[in-house]
Amino acid sequence: MQAARKLSTPAQPSEQGGAGAVAIAMFCVLLVSYVLMAADRYLFPVLAADVRRAFGFSLRNTGLLATIFTLGLGIAGLPTGYLLSRFSRKTVLLIGIAIFSGATALTTVAAGFVSMLVCLAAQGIGMSMLATSMFALAANYFSRNRAAAIGSVNVCYGIGGFLGPFLAGILRTDYGTWHAPMLAFGAFGFVMIVAISATVRPWFSETQHASKTLADSGGASTLANRNTVILTILSLIHGLSMYGFLGLYPTFLRENLHYSPADAGTVIGFFGIGALTSIGGGWLGDRFSPKLVLSGSLLSIAVLGYLFFQPSLSMLTRETLTCLYGIAGSAVLYVNLAGYHVKALRRSHSGRGSGMFVTSLYGGAAFGGYLLGALATPYGWLRASEIEISLLCLVGAVLALAIRPREMSL
Fold it and tell me: What does the pLDDT look like over 66-88, one tens digit per residue?
């Protein structure tokens, strides 16, 4: 299969007239699929209170369901890196969209906890295939500003992060059932498969421009190196803390503060608004020391973790804090963890770097909601957040100081 793929390698974009504008147009089509993927991530957390009432799930099991898709993301990260060396990025990306969109729709026919868990975990497998393909494509096509390129992808995460919970709340209210958002977003995924199949050409999606025109300069030749090990631990910490918050904060708002589905969706959607600054976050990562960027963002999140679950805050204050978390946690920390994982390795190993990032971050994220729910049950929401978000991020901020930037690729 690999041989067949290489035999059909088309001309590079630089060899085709007007290819720059066409490439941007195709990249925009792919970015719409990333918006959809980001939106799908937020559907269940906004609807979790409804699902909990319908099935009688405990808080910790509801938290596990809200973040279990990240287990699929984590498990599939490294295997997707392998698939990308055997199949075209476009093929892997399309299969990923089909898996997560189909799984989203199938949650509406789940009979109980186990079948719901399987659907949501499968959702994450498809998301991993899309995310890893997009990171690898961006890192190669925009080789000289890789963190900023990944930041542009993450801007679409921000758009989806806002639209997903916002539209989920509206559809839930208008149709009176949590099934409506799941079915609507699942169907749109198959619309995107048709659009990508018809518009995205192999000369763009399969380009190896960076690895062919730029020699390996710096970076490790194996995943077993100091920087990758530290970045993997930081990714685990960030995944655990961030998705504990994203998975259960809407449930806290709805059950403890009696927010409506639309209001809870609006508050959590401001995380996506903050993520819209991702290009700026990537710019910081390209120009400043990884120690400063990672430690500073982790310290900021530690402070936010203490503030989120204070009971007397207004809705506006909660929206502001959630937006700040989107900036620190998504635009800066998420984007640059992804970029530094790639930079920790030689250019020719960019697929392995993005795969390790996806696996480590989402492997930790899978249990973020479960842990927060388990801590909140005996200790309360505030103490649970202090442990899972504030304390963990403080540990990560110290660990980030041990990174060696001079050993990263140029």
Answer: 888 888 877 887 788 778 778 88
